[in-house]
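Kindly inspect the following:
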Amino acid sequence: MTGSGIDDWLLLRHVAITVTAPTDPSHFAQVPLQWVGPLAFSFQGNLEEIEVPLATYESPLWPSTARGARVSCRAGGIRCTLIDQRMSRSILLEAPNASVALSMVTQLKATLPQLQTVVAETSRFAQLIDLHAQFVGNLVYLRFAFETGDASGHNMATKASARLLEYIRLTFPEMKHVSVSGNYCTDKKTSAVNGILGRGKYVVTEAVIPEKIVRRYLKSTAAKITELNIRKNLIGTMLAGGLRSANAHAANILLAFYLATGQDAANIVEGSQAITHCEDRDGDLYFSLTLPNLIVGTVGNGKGLSFVEENLQRLGCLEDREPGENAARLAAICASATWCGELSLMAALTNPGELMQAHEKWERT
């Protein structure tokens, strides 16, 4: 049924649909939120300690992440490195044949500055930075990548892609419109392309934890945690058919942080495609978590809610900075919190019974 067909059906059925933004607090889903920390992290050369908000029904997540945060402070902080940041959207077109499709893409790549001018007309923050193509028969999938300032960029990228699609149709009349989204983006689905070509903030978190701290606060050893990471996160995930993912529970912390800071929670699908990497360095533990697809922003839909604004303000992510810097800081904090939760669970799993005891203690009190 087409869009207009649905409208006609609703009129015939006398069905009225009204969608309004909620103002009464009783219309909001109530998710318990606690501030955890402080955790210590170093981003762009600045070492600081900060508490983080986590909204979750899984109450053991708070003390577990807090333990990882304690370790981060005593180990000198989590080093955060922002590798890349972008938002993508793919459009889908139909050509008469593959030869015409290839010719069109070749010409587009040769005139990238013109495409950038087209994008600039849609937003003062959107900037086209990359273009990739895939061909299936006479179908062509164009994947655009944009810088989007402090916004996560979903709508900004879609608006820019829609304008590019219109421009391509006018420039190449033989091309037919199929969809403004062709799933080569890839949005809120597990894929390899996001980790390879980038979508969101690509953040690496790492720290070296001295042996005495591993034993005292994590009740474990570097050797045990490193071995478990290989056997559980790497081999276990491979057996399960995991795709560009090797971690214990990154999605837990990501969801809690996303809900507390007004993010699109469905983006934990690609966000949790994270890789935990450990090394036993003569008893000291090198522990890292790489998150290639963190999709977070400090402006845009959901950020105007009072509790979200308060949380972002407390995190120092609503400051007067250059476009994109507040969102980059938020991604670093989010990644650091996820590092803390990942470390704590991995340590707990080296001790028989500890995980279940924690759930029984915190979920039955």
User: Anything to note?
Assistant: Residues 86-179 form a domain with the Alpha-Beta Plaits fold (CATH 3.30.70.420). The CA atoms of residues 130 and 146 lie 7 Å apart. Confidence is low (pLDDT under 50) at residues 1-17.
